């Protein structure tokens, strides 16, 4: 006889909500993984059974559990075009992240803090900057994305701010728009020295501020365009930066950030795009995401020697944020 977890998976596949609720009420494990590595929630999402999904979520089924091939219930709903199921899982994910921030904190616990990164040696090559653990800080494949970010934030001209120099891709692109002023904040000593060696400190309209953005806020003015892309920080750090946007971004100004949020999972990425959009809306900003296809520039050879593929999606969603009053 099948155990209650198997029976719950079967009820989820069939969309039998009464059977599913009965099994849940009698103690069936909503976190159960069957021999395929799938949970009842994944089965329900795969077949678009929204009522079963709701019953499972209400009983505490984890919305962000992953199969052995790194697919979540939300991914199953997305792939199969089950809109109601997808919306239900998306809203659950957003609410959970607003309260708990589970993905970001899990990654934070596993990763290094930015202070560890700042003390770490970085290695520069023609197409990438790597940390000592062979994790990519920045890679050349991002160049067209950085050019698109620069075009967005420079669209009205004026004073520009970039947080995080990296390989200098976005700053090189910003310079092509001849901004009135161009402030760059960089915290890593080796990257900073490389900037100076490359002549960035001698450019007429460029001001370089060495230090963590959290420590140099008092040295910053207000800007017409702002870009944020730091390594070794997490969603919570970007959320903290957003709290300062009302002081940093001039009326009519445009803000953007490197949108690498959960770049290894399509559904989690959507959750975080929606989450950051909601949080910026609460601060008075509207966010538009412009889709840019990146599949063709991400062959396996790109990742040779890189420990972690930080981007695995076919489309990059470039955020363009403006004060809500300015977009009306």
Automatic annotation (TrEMBL):
Cited Pfam families: Ank_2
Coiled-coil blocks: none
Main localization (coarse): cytoplasm
Keyword Nucleus: yes
Any one Gene Ontology molecular-function term assigned to this protein's record: protein-arginine N-methyltransferase activity
InterPro entries: Ankyrin_rpt, Ankyrin_rpt-contain_sf, Arginine_N-MeTrfase_2, RMT2/GAMT_Mtase, RMT2_dom, SAM-dependent_MTases_sf
Gene3D superfamilies cross-referenced by the UniProt entry: Ankyrin repeat-containing domain (1.25.40.20), Vaccinia Virus protein VP39 (3.40.50.150)
Transmembrane segments: none
Function according to Swiss-Prot or TrEMBL: S-adenosyl-L-methionine-dependent protein-arginine N-methyltransferase that methylates the delta-nitrogen atom of arginine residues to form N5-methylarginine (type IV) in target proteins. Monomethylates ribosomal protein L12.
Protein name, per record: Protein arginine N-methyltransferase 2
Protein's organism: Olea europaea subsp. europaea
